[in-house]
């Protein structure tokens, strides 16, 4: 469903709008369309032509790739203030991943034609998109190195720390990840099996490093995870 676009605080902190005046940000937002998706909705699928750019306003997206053997691999999570499908601004190449909502999610979407038009009017926007693309490339390279040279315990520790840094809040019990994260999600994100992730998390719970429930994880000893991630 499409609604009239407001100007949430999320956008004032977004790297997508870095260096752009607030009144210009308002004009850019108004040139797009706000769309609200239910949890589990699919915005686009791997292999579709790239025709729209998306900016998350509320909620988050899960980007995943389907391996040739049919296994889903989670590439990353897109949080409020972040963009995805930026390739749509430059060409109609096939999208490299599938995007699904994690919880109820609101996004601003622009067609390729509209994003090219506003990039011409606000050149800083193109620079910000380039920075975002380089950041994603760096993240992919780091993830690849983790998969090829690190033990699975290190990969899982790094994944929890990365997700915790992106989206979490502190309580007396620890640092809670803000969205539902199942053990299967974590296995898909780290390129391992559900059995292995379950074994690792159960061991960490016994040590007091984390606490977990149904699709909920809290880090109770982040220092222990940092030490494991850095030293193995």
Q: Which residues sit in consecutive blocks of at least 5 with pLDDT less than 50?
A: 1-5
Q: What structural category arises from helix and sheet content?
A: alpha+beta
Shape: globular
Rg for CA atoms: 19 Å
Strand content: 25-35%
Tally of strands: 11
Which CATH top level class of the largest domain fits?
Mainly Beta
* Helix-strand sequence: EHHEEEEEEHHHEEHHEEH
Task: Give the N-to-C terminal Cα separation.
Answer: 47 Å
Question: What's this model, at a glance?
Answer:
This protein has 232 residues and is α+β, with helices and mostly antiparallel strands. The chain has helices at 9-12, 22-30, 112-121, 123-149, 152-166, 183-190, 194-207, 222-231; strands spanning 2-3, 33-37, 42-44, 52-66, 72-78, 83-84, 98-111, 168-171, 174-177, 210-213, 216-219. The chain contains eight helices and eleven strands.
Features:
2 domains, globular, Arc Repressor Mutant, subunit A, disordered N terminus, 42% helix, 8 helices, 232 residues, Jelly Rolls, 11 strands, 4-stranded antiparallel β-sheet, single chain
